[in-house]
Write a structure and sequence with these properties.
Length: 207
């Protein structure tokens, strides 16, 4: 979701169309007897401020089972850091890196709750190294990062770096994967796309 000033009206319309989010904002962030004017609230807190507070509310809901009375921004500090580390690779005003961090945070909590030790879905500093070869800032940084996470897992580092320097395409990387690797990658990306309500990317690629 874009966060520039010209999109505040669009953000307000989106929230009005999603009464469950609007209710959370009114209960946990607005906290006033005055009528909620969402555009004024966004201008007051900034979109990132609203976004961060909402994210912290959902994180706490998953942790404790009930919605809190207000936001606890300590719960999203690592999401903000995750976004900051990726900032050189996406345009100003795009929140998709934060979205990816939120997705990973919620997944990590769920894994911990079932006692799983699987942390293969988490990103480590070395997973960002391949982004240095990007020739332009990318709007859909989350999809790029997720794809490169899989390619880094399947293709040895020397071969991967050489191919990136040569400007190889997505299809070049995908074509060298085994059927099992392709299946795992497709399932993981389908799962991510479904979780954020965005399946359109699969219509644009042959996989």
């Amino acid at each position: 979701m874009q966060s520039t000033g010209k999109n505040f009206v669009g953000l307000g319309q989106y929230l009005y169309q999603n009464p469950e989010l609007l209710g959370l904002i009114e209960r946990c962030i607005h906290k006033s007897q005055k009528t909620l004017r969402i555009e004024a609230l966004i201008k007051s807190h900034g979109w990132h401020g609203i976004r961060n507070q909402l994210a912290s509310i959902f994180v706490e809901k998953l942790l404790k089972g009930t919605f809190p009375s207000g936001p606890n921004l300590k719960l999203v500090e690592e999401l903000i850091e995750f976004e900051t580390n990726l900032r050189p690779y996406f345009p100003e005003g795009v929140s998709r890196a934060f979205l990816m961090g939120f997705y990973l945070k919620m997944g990590q909590i769920q894994q911990n709750q079932i006692g799983s030790q699987d942390d293969s879905f988490l990103f480590r500093p070395e997973d960002f190294e391949s982004l240095a070869f990007s020739r332009a800032r990318v709007d859909q940084i989350d999809w790029l990062l997720l794809m490169m996470k899989h390619f880094s897992k399947y293709i040895d580092k020397i071969t991967l770096v050489k191919a990136l320097k040569e400007g190889k395409s997505y299809q070049d990387f995908y074509s060298v994967l085994t059927d099992e690797q392709k299946s795992e990658m497709s399932q993981n990306m389908l799962s991510y796309g479904a979780s954020i309500g965005e399946e359109s990317i699969f219509l644009a690629k042959e996989v």
